[in-house]
Amino acid sequence: MIEVRNLCKTFHDRKKGDIPAVRSISFQCAPGHVFGLLGRNGAGKTTTLRMLATILTPTSGTAIIDGLDVTEKPGEVRKRIGYLSGDTKLYDRLTGRELLTYFGELSGMTPASIEGRMAELQVTFNLRDFLDKRVGKMSTGMKQRLSLARVVLHDPPVLIFDEPTSGLDVMGAREVLRIVQELKAKGRTIIFSTHIMTEAERICDEIAIIEQGSILTQGSVLSLRNGNGGGSLEDVFVKTVREVTSDA
User: Fold this and answer.
1) Which structural domains are found in the chain, ordered by start?
2) 213 near 21, Cβ under 8 Å?
3) What order do you get walking across the sheet with 158-162 strand by strand?
4) Other residues' Cβ atoms within 10 Å of the Cβ of residue 158
5) What are the backbone dihedrals phi and psi of residue 188, each rounded to the nearest 5 degrees, phi first?
6) Which SS3 state, helix, strand or coil, does residue 217 take?
7) Prediction pTM value
8) In angstroms, what CA-CA distances link 99 with 89, 136, 143?
9) Residues 227, 6: Cα–Cα separation, whole Å
10) How far is CA 124 from the centre of its chain?
11) Over its length of 248 residues, how does the chain's per-residue pLDDT go in tens digits?
């Protein structure tokens, strides 16, 4: 379970002063559900997810992840989440097997549990053909599948995906979405950030549109479309964002 409560983040610039990046946002996501966070580049999606992942400390407000407050017990929260961004870097000189072993050890897993999970993930993520290949020799799609395997290796109940299909071709993106849907079916709590409307329509149970650090509207894909004349999710997004930016 994820519960975000009036989460805010303000950055300070010596010339520009305080710059609010996230402005008092709140939402919930239950196990077995995918919550989509939609927004343009710079809308506040990544800042929000980095606070949930305890990479950034909120200026105010908080989030409760799997029963733990991110501001009070960030170390315990990290054990219960898997976080993947579109620009996640891997170690080119390691093989896929060596990389998963390394991150498994960082998570406190035993050698036996790492081997067991790796055997499972070989099937789920189609890793067999390149698990013993060096990362630097892998294609973008292979690297992304390996990144997903790394994120779920310690079997966390909460998963945070920040534009995980970024840079992938159509086939690679479809594979990532398939994996996310399988994780949802297994009861994981998933936050999925994207600016690709078709992805959100396909896998998200609920969606929030964020612009200028604030959630403008929120609901299921069907409710959002019905509330805006039955248009596509892209139509809803454009209309919602334009109403705010035209008033600015």
Assistant:
1) 2-80+157-245 (3.40.50.300), 89-155 (no CATH)
2) yes
3) 81-85, 158-162, 189-194, 34-38, 206-211, 214-219
4) 22
5) -75, 150
6) strand
7) 0.89
8) 12, 12, 11
9) 25
10) 19
11) 899 999 999 998 888 888 899 999 999 999 999 999 999 888 899 999 999 999 999 999 999 999 999 999 999 999 999 999 866 778 999 999 999 999 999 888 999 999 999 998 888 888 888 899 999 999 888 888 898 899 999 999 999 999 888 778 888 888 889 889 999 999 999 999 988 888 888 899 999 999 999 999 999 988 988 887 777 888 888 888 888 776 55
Which pair of tokens denotes residue 126? 């189609």
- At residue 7, what is the residue type? L
Question: What is the helix (H) or strand (E) element at residue 208, kind and residue range?
Answer: strand 206-211
Token look-up 């992938």 returns: 168
Q: CA–CA separation, 65 vs 53, rounded Å? A: 9
Structure tokens at 1: 């379970």
Q: Is 112 exposed, middle or buried, given 0-12, 13-18 or 19+ CB atoms closer than 10 A?
A: exposed
